[in-house]
Amino acid sequence: MTDVGVKAPPGGLTVPRQRQRRSVRGILDRGDDRTAPVLAPAAAESTATVLVPAQRRAPAAPGPAPAGRVPEVVRLMAADVAAGSVTAVAAWELGAVAALLAVPAMAASGLQRRRFSPSVLDDAPRILRSSAFVLTAFLLVCVAGAVSLTQVLVAYAVYVAAAIACRALAYRWIRTVRRDGDLTYPVLLVGDEEGELARRIAEHPETGLRVVGNADVTGTVCHPDGSTETVGTVMARDQVTDVIVHPVCAGPETSAWVRRVAWRAVALHLIVPEVGAAPRRGWDDHVWGVPVLRMQTALHWRRARVLKRLTDVAVSFAALVALTPVLLVVAALVRREVGPGILFRQERVGLDGRTFDVLKFRSMRNLPPGVTSPWSVTSSDRIGPVGRFIRHYSLDELPQLWNVLKGDMSLVGPRPERPEYVSRFSEEFPHYQFRHRAPVGLTGLAAVEGLRGNTSIHDRAYFDNLYVESWSYWADVKIIARTVLAVARGTGS
């Protein structure tokens, strides 16, 4: 067995050049044959080959959306806009501002998502917090001289009252159409062996859930008539939108396939275990008395991916323009030390196992013909003074800003690795493959924690997955700031 603290291999492998882009199966394709249908349209594959070259999969054909799903979201947004518009009774300027900001303010407070048991009284504190954004905008309009302070106070009081009243009406409508069966969402239960949660859902249709099966720890769905199906078959046929996991099944065997399933744009919920106390901030929701926590994976959300990509494009373009003099100087020094060919290209594995050519400034002299390149070369005598300097301050990685601009990489994400090492590490460390759920990055959480080069692959994968599963925009900002400090200190290489 491989020691969990094993470090990166000492070397001895050569990277073959690939003329045609390929992908390496990993996060979405690996698994035993019981879960393979969830992750790939092809027949199940042997687990002996963890990552193999494959063509990019075509996305699954979208199935029918749950009846009334879009109207539920639209109704919530309409209720918030209506609440903002009512403030026009104080001043039309304030009504326009409130109508414009109501939806994003509610979204920022977590109130623009579907829940099993919506309650306006439970939401009142968050509605008040979200109203602070609207109040701030009101005060700015007041400072501009468009309205008086009295109008601001009246408009704010009207907005809060209207927001609560409109939400109450929207929640009442949602519960009604759910009871009528016009608004249901297919849910897959995991570990509900006694059928307690399924019974509660069946007896209380106002939750909006429709149970399509109960899976065990191996990913097999058992039906009341004794028949069994794979999780993949059930999810593809019934277009599952939610997965609820019982705490007794939250072990390594379950987490492997649930992790893959949860990355296919379904909402993952964990039943809060009965330990005599609640989480510090309480639970997010409940299914007729059974508390559940929604497990956040923000990079699922299209708006999060779009925001991250827009930031990548803007920052990488600005950095390439601003650093042009530095790039030219480094290029000239590299050309003088190592000769023709200032850029080094090497195949790496990125998002969803797709490969691309990463760019770097050459920092080493070429190897003699027939000599292989080691995995770690920090102490190689092939590195000259210029190469050592640009590696020490990570200047050799500046060309990767072009990879970021092209979309091969992101500013922040797991650091990319060569295909043969991805295959090897994924076999030795089952959790390693999951790091490819996010775009690889110029820097990353594991990198700023010092896990680069000849360090523990086991620990590196844990930090990479921690970043993927707890992503936030602020997390990227923090990692970039820590990277800048590390480079300035010369500890980023």
From TrEMBL:
Keyword Membrane: yes
Keyword Glycoprotein part of the UniProt annotation: no
PANTHER family referenced in this protein's UniProt entry, alphabetically: COLANIC BIOSYNTHESIS UDP-GLUCOSE LIPID CARRIER TRANSFERASE (PTHR30576), UNDECAPRENYL-PHOSPHATE N-ACETYLGALACTOSAMINYL 1-PHOSPHATE TRANSFERASE-RELATED (PTHR30576:SF0)
Family: Belongs to the bacterial sugar transferase family.
Sequence segments annotated as region (Disordered): 1-27
Signal sequence extent: none
Enzyme kind, highest EC tier: transferase
Subcellular location: Membrane
Annotated membrane topology: Multi-pass membrane protein
Keywords: Membrane, Transferase, Transmembrane, Transmembrane helix
E.C. number: 2.7.8.6
GO MF: undecaprenyl-phosphate galactose phosphotransferase activity
Protein name: Undecaprenyl-phosphate galactosephosphotransferase
Transmembrane segments: 81-106, 127-147, 153-170, 313-334
Principal location listed in the UniProt entry: membrane
Species of origin: uncultured Nocardioidaceae bacterium
Residues covered by the Bacterial sugar transferase domain: 308-488
UniProt-listed Pfam families: Bac_transf
Annotated GO CC locations: membrane
